[in-house]
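Hi team,

Below is the intake form for Acetyltransferase (GNAT) family protein from Micromonospora krabiensis. Please confirm the fields before the structure is written into the shared record.

FORM ID: S-0412
PROTEIN: Acetyltransferase (GNAT) family protein
ORGANISM: Micromonospora krabiensis
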Amino acid sequence: MGPVLIESRAATDPEIAALVTAQQRELREADGGLDGQVTVTHNDIRYLAGVLNGRAVACGGLQALDEDTGEVKRMYVRPSYRGRGIARQLLAALEELAFQRGHTVVCLETGTYLPGAIALYTSSGYEPIPVYGEYVDNPYSVCFAKRLPVRA
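The structure came back. Fields below:
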């Protein structure tokens, strides 16, 4: 396996769209189909792709919730590429993007049924926070946040 390149991609990028679609399908299967809504890519999310041998195998996005807070969205690594540190590299790149945009906090939501995701976030310095926004009524949602270094 060669090095993973992290590239900025447009929300309209076909590889990003395919990864987000795969992510949404996997989430629906994991939560027993509880979440019937299909969310497609959003133009206000800045997407990064993890590219291996010319193919996007992972994605993640950053959406501004407010001036201080960025939210990590749509983190996904194709199943055959998991366990190689790609998600951790992508998460670090999203945190750097948030820092460059002046955010002081990064938050995210994941599902209680995704222990691998929870382990990644907690081992990367994220701490549990109260469920927020659109996730409040979802009993399977768990939310995390991480304070970013302050600009010198």
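SUMMARY LINE: The CA atoms of residues 88 and 123 lie 10 Å apart.

Thanks, M.
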